[in-house]
């Protein structure tokens, strides 16, 4: 776009201010252009005209980038970021493989991958937030232990049963994992009504 | 190194298995090493070489060095497809490929691990 990527000879004579072959400082040429000051020298100098053209190209490129940014501002980068980080975490902390399918099959799934699916399934129950999820080998099947935050106004026994059901379904339908047991541990109660009121008045 | 050395044959077999696995529906890609993932983000590997993917296939050769005695495959699967079904399809595809490539050879054991869902 611009030919001024490398400082030409004598570029440092005035500090960082590049001087064109015609002897005028580049900054002055650009400043004149910004102020729309037409000088007789500019009209007849190919070096100054070239410098102005470079500046115009630069402005066009910046405007194009602004337009692109505006168009992509609606794009939600969060899912992509999450997937990238998932991959990085997989590499760094893959967990242990746990059995997939029938006990006799030599098929496995990494614990972190299974746990993520099961936590998501648990959170389909309204008001539930899933915490730690351990999935361990239990003689060919898997034992799941899931911590959840439950709504304070919920009946915990029924809630835990609903969560357990969703987890079992996800283990079977999404993964194909045989669950020997699913233990749900309520580690906190969340007052969702209070949160809602705070949100209303905010 | 020539194409006739055992290590070259082994590498060729690993690449073959990788191609077979990546062709199985539901497989997003073979589990790559982190370094390979970062490298592939910076430069596109040559088409068809699959260099960035080979970390997902490990082969323990049989005593005669021809057929794979144990093939360990680690794949990332597509979300929305049942993971165990993809794993079974991968195992079948690898077993069939090796049976065709080494007819009459010793059977192989195929281990499939789902290392991610995307």
Instruction: Give the beta-strand count of chain B.
Output: 4
Helix vs. strand class of chain A: alpha+beta
Query: Gyration radius of chain A, to the nearest Å?
Result: 32 Å
The fourth-level CATH homologous superfamily of the largest domain in chain A is: Cation efflux protein, cytoplasmic domain
Helix content of chain B: 25-40%
Task: Indicate the proportion of strand residues of chain A.
Answer: 15-25%
Q: Which shape of chain A, going by the Cα principal axes?
A: elongated
The computed structural class of chain B is alpha+beta
CATH architecture designation of the largest domain in chain A = 2-Layer Sandwich
The number of distinct β-strands of chain A equals 5
Mean pLDDT of chain B: 79
SS element count, helices of chain B: 3
- The ordered H/E elements of chain A are HHHHEEHEEHEH
User: What percentage of residues of chain A falls in helices of 4 or more residues?
Assistant: 40-55%
State the name of the first-level CATH class of the largest domain in chain A.
Alpha Beta
Task: Show unreliable segments of chain B.
Answer: 44-53
Taking the alpha carbons of the first and last residues of chain A, their distance comes to: 50 Å
From the N-terminal CA to the C-terminal CA of chain B, the straight-line distance is 38 Å
